[in-house]
Amino acid sequence: MTRPIIRIHNLETNEVIDREMNDEEFAKWQKVSEEIEIQKATELEAAAKRQALLDKLGITEDEARLLLGGN
Hints:
- Helices cover 59% and strands 17% of the residues.
- By secondary structure, it is an alpha+beta fold.
- The termini are far apart.
């Protein structure tokens, strides 16, 4: 697998260096990527549960907000 590229831009000299992530950077990137995927999955599961409840009640999300006093 090709590692993601890091871009370093020195604003004083306008020098741009593109390089692959080193081992430490890559490990951190992988950890953050996994955490993002877990968060996305959790959000999708919550949305599915919320929609299932709305379907069971036979109301829309806007109607639920009105019932709960939200705008």
